[in-house]
Amino acid sequence: MTANAKSGTNYSRSVRWFESVLVAGMLLTCIGIGSIALDRPALGLFGDGHPFVDAEPTFPVEFGDDQATIVSDNEQINPAYSQAPVEIGKPVSARFTFSDPRPDQRVIWVIWQVSGPLLVLVGLWLVYSIVRSARLGDPFVARNERRLWTLAGLIAVGGTGYSMLTGVAEMLLLRRSAAAGLTEMVFTVSFLPLVAGLGVAVLAWVWHVGISLQDEVAGTI
Asked: How far separated are the first and last CA of the chain, in Å rounded?
């Protein structure tokens, strides 16, 4: 076997392995979506889960002044022996569980919980399509460029939208419950998906340049 043939075989195996990982990821994501839909807060076919929101409580949470200790049979041992003391304080996060949610709370919970995995599933499918085309032929084609632009938009817009949806869903769930006055409801949005989407957009632009150069070279032959 020549060096080029061996290199091509290793490349094909690596791509196939990556494809298998992506397929496994998509299957696990589908299973996750199905479990959310079938769980008690949604269709209620199995499970004993309840919708919940983690938020900072408005009521005081007091911490003692004593150092944390581990109690042995005959003495108390400071677990941070020879270490600087650690202070425990705010912010404190409490979990508010809705044991008997109303239909509207169920709908909000399911939409919130399913939207994230759906975005991941679509993203994995786009990456899988690009990797599969790389194994079957030339990856520098216009179809893959469109997939990369779509992936960039999915990460930037979809990821930021999911961050906003998370804040809205938490506020709606809490405000429509008995815990409305017991929490600090702060709406936050993460712009990290915009940065990640911009990175994928740069890759899509590089892909576009590569396709243009490839077409120019093909035109001169």
From this structure: 31
